[in-house]
Amino acid sequence: MTNLAASIGTKAFCRSVEDRVRQQVDSLPPAIRGPACHHFGIREAGGKSPGMGKIARSRLCAELASMVDGPHVTIPRERAITAATAIEMIHNFGLIHDDIMDQDEERRGRKAVWVAYGTGMAILLGDILLATAVKIAASVGNTRIADIFNQAIGKLIEGQLLDMGSNIGTTLEELWGIAEKKTASLFELAAMSIAELACVTQRQGEAMESFSRHYGVAFQYMNDAASFFAGNSHDPRALSDIKNRRATLPAVLLVQNALPGSDALIAHFSDDQPLTGGAAYEIMRALRSDAVRDMARQAVLQELEMAQNALSAEFEPCSVLALASEMLDSKILGGLMSPC
């Protein structure tokens, strides 16, 4: 059995996961392989491959594996990579279906699958990725991990249901619950898969789970805020959030605190008429205010602090905590700290 930390670094681990995903795409039925290649950025026109995104969940798997690895713990490399590959497949199933439900036309700088290939094909691609993920997870050969995967999938879908039912009256507490299920569930899955493979103690497993939960919520909050504070006032992602009446972190903070511009946002959520360009930019200005930025930043920092505290209670400072530190130093959080 190969020791993970001694044989492979985080970058190499993530490259191995990407290679496995490509292999899975190559094995799909020919009729759906094209849409899959498009979604994952494989064999794009001109020979360029923009990549598969952040694969943040795979990176968390690698960092946590290195953290718990030691003289008395040997994590099977192949099983860890296999579990991470399955997690990435589930994540992309969620993205494809989410784009359909949210009517988002772009994903990773290219057309969403439902726009490029039709809604039916996008639904089927998401379905086959989920089925493939379940098969891959089963191949790890650990019934406990199979159970953890099934629970995470259910939690992810429940989060999507809650997200669909969210509105301008959604509270910050309810938004946290949506993020915890819809986004953090797969970060928790990454952590608990490594915990199971490493046979950590119950307290260590709980610390890893708590860290990944709060880190995942912070990750979602950052994504919510990124389109408003890391871009410009014409950022298409932010305009899409407004026009499609999404209960994002900035929107919830604006309304819950009755800040200037909240009345216009409430009126927009209550009206089923299309939003005009002028009204959209007026709401955008309100959402990009200093007050909203400061509160969004505080919400992210609070989750990151809880994530760090949870892990530090059982483990020495390590590279996993650098994941949270990187978020603190990122351009996105930097945008939250700078005037609009």
Automatic annotation (TrEMBL):
<keyword id="KW-0808">Transferase</keyword>
<dbReference type="Pfam" id="PF00348">
    <property type="entry name" value="polyprenyl_synt"/>
</dbReference>
<dbReference type="GO" id="GO:0046872">
    <property type="term" value="F:metal ion binding"/>
</dbReference>
<dbReference type="InterPro" id="IPR008949">
    <property type="entry name" value="Isoprenoid_synthase_dom_sf"/>
</dbReference>
<dbReference type="GO" id="GO:0004659">
    <property type="term" value="F:prenyltransferase activity"/>
</dbReference>
<protein>
    <submittedName>
        <fullName>Polyprenyl synthetase</fullName>
    </submittedName>
</protein>
<comment type="similarity">
    <text>Belongs to the FPP/GGPP synthase family.</text>
</comment>
<dbReference type="InterPro" id="IPR033749">
    <property type="entry name" value="Polyprenyl_synt_CS"/>
</dbReference>
<dbReference type="GO" id="GO:0008299">
    <property type="term" value="P:isoprenoid biosynthetic process"/>
</dbReference>
<comment type="pathway">
    <text>Isoprenoid biosynthesis.</text>
</comment>
<dbReference type="InterPro" id="IPR000092">
    <property type="entry name" value="Polyprenyl_synt"/>
</dbReference>
<keyword id="KW-0479">Metal-binding</keyword>
<keyword id="KW-0460">Magnesium</keyword>
